[in-house]
Amino acid sequence: MTTTVSAPAPVRRSQSRWWALVMIGLAQLLVIIDTTIVNIALPSAQRELGMSDVARQWTISAYTLAFGGLLLLGGRLADRLGRKNTLIVGALGFAIASAVGGAATGPAMLIGARAAQGVFAALLAPSTLSLLTITFTEAKERAKAFGIFTAIMMSGGALGLVAGGALAEYLDWRWCLYVNLPLAIIASIGGWLVLPNVKGHRETPLDWISAILGSGGIVGLVYALSEAATRGWGSALVLSILGAAIVLLAAFVLRQSRVDNPLLPLRILRERSRAAAYLTIAAASFGMFGMFLFLTYQLQGIMHYGAFQAGIAFLPFLLGNVLMSTIFSRRLLPRTGPRPLLVIGLLLMAAGLAALTQLTPDSSYWALILPVELVLGGGAGLAMPTVMNIATARVNPADAGVASAFITTSQQVGASIGTASLNTIASSATSSAAGLGVAGATVHGFAVANGWAGAIVAVAGLGVGLLVGNKKQAQERG
Q1: Please, which contacts does 360-365 make with residues 24 or more away whose CB atoms are closer than 8 Å?
Q2: CATH code for position 86
Q3: Which of 137, 177, 230, 383 is 20 to 30 Å apart from 396, CA to CA?
Q4: What is the pLDDT along the chain (478 residues), one digit of tens a residue?
């Protein structure tokens, strides 16, 4: 007679935690990968649907603006309704919006579907990090889990370019949207089975006025920066929208300091290490997503890579990111504290961006672009796991959703502002270098914009060093 011995309870709980990480990571990948997966497919979609260049731009902006603008509201809804619930609803809604976008018969239908994707992404994303925080509480497991999650978060953009290139070249551009359906369904069903049930704080009222002020300010700021590329900084429309955005954001901050249940409690930002974490991810995203845009055009438009080949060309960034975030960062953080990892990570990214000022139409992938991607990926992999760890540590349980949401808000706003403003800088530099020929002027614009990105990321790195302080000071503040 044989006896079946079940696994001890601690082992089963440990296995369940790692399965939960798989579902959380899959849900996070879903929203991050969509910031870039459609980019490479856009030329095909534009030809088939008869889109104008303006409509093509809004195919990207509709997603990022809805996502970044509604994240804080999504964070509060996660706190109120329960993070497991909002993750599942967000993933299913994202799948439906993706199916509609894939079946689009015209530009308006595609842009509307992309905006709906952003809305559901804003509901889903805040749930992932807060669920990760409560699932992994033991120090070593937590560090490992955050390393894996960060590799997904920071490499998702590059992975989207690889996947988008393969799908666009070998299947059809619509599969860049249809591919979300199985991912979302698996994340929803798996999440329902393995994610912890976290009670919502339904007694916390939602501040809809703050949601309108914050979302309106973010959307207005990014829209003004985007329009400056074509209309110029002297445009009355650009200046009026920029002014309105600044007023809305100032009113948002003022309201957060006065209402009883703010959308973004300012106490979350008063802890200096946490504020430094938000600044780090915003600065990194500012430079990284602009870099993805310029290198995509460099590889396809200037160096004549195919869509899939261009996607594969981003793999060194993924390699540097994954190796640094999963092997080195989690081991270094307990020994060094957060400041060296955040500062060195940002400075490495700044150095990589500065090296891209050497771009020319004749630049070599192997001699310039590949080593730069390794440096950029390594810098991101060094800083970002640290960001995840300190941004979510010691947060009041009722604020966990919004604290987590502000990490993704910082990333999306940084990416949106970076893409819009750096594209404006590149366009201006290209116009002033018309004597270099079309290819020469275009690449000159990329080089100038990357130089500005490197300088801004470097300044942010120095500011982060001042905010965090040394290891002892950081511990005392906690």
Answers
A1: 360/440, 360/443, 360/447, 361/302, 361/439, 361/440, 361/443, 363/298, 363/303, 363/443, 365/299, 365/303, 365/313
A2: 1.20.1250.20
A3: 383
A4: 444 434 444 444 555 777 888 888 888 888 878 777 887 777 778 889 888 766 776 787 788 778 877 877 887 787 777 778 888 899 999 999 999 999 999 999 999 999 999 899 888 887 777 777 777 767 677 777 777 777 776 667 677 878 888 888 888 889 988 988 988 888 888 888 877 776 655 666 677 888 889 888 888 887 887 777 677 778 899 899 999 999 999 999 999 888 877 878 888 888 888 889 999 999 998 998 788 878 888 988 899 888 788 888 888 988 888 888 778 877 888 788 888 999 999 999 999 999 999 999 999 999 999 999 999 999 988 988 888 778 777 777 666 667 777 887 787 778 878 877 888 888 889 988 988 888 999 999 999 999 999 999 999 999 999 888 655 544 444 4
Cα separation values, 277 from 108, 348, 350, Å? 38, 16, 17
Rounded alpha-carbon distances, angstroms, from residue 96 to 131, 182, 208, 400: 24, 11, 26, 28
- What's the rounded Cα separation, in Å, for the pair 38 and 178? 11
User: What DSSP string describes 11-24?
Assistant: HHHHHHHHHHHHHH
CB–CB of 115/62 below 8 Å? yes
Number of structural domains (the chain) is 2
Concatenate the DSSP letters of all residues of 417-443 into one string: HHHHHHHHHHHHHHHHTGGGHHHHHHH
> 156 is written with which tokens?
């998702």
Q: Hey, what are 205's tokens?
A: 């009222």
- Residue 7 inside a domain? The answer is no
End-to-end C-alpha distance for the chain, whole angstroms: 57
Instruction: Give the other-Cβ count within 10 Å of 100's Cβ.
Output: 17
Question: Given the structure tokens 């409560």, which residue do they identify?
Answer: 134
- Among the candidates 262, 281, 302, a domain finishes at 262
pTM for the model stands at 0.78
33 and 100 share a domain?
yes
Question: Max Cα separation, the chain?
Answer: 87
- How remote is the C-alpha of 108 from its chain's centroid? 25
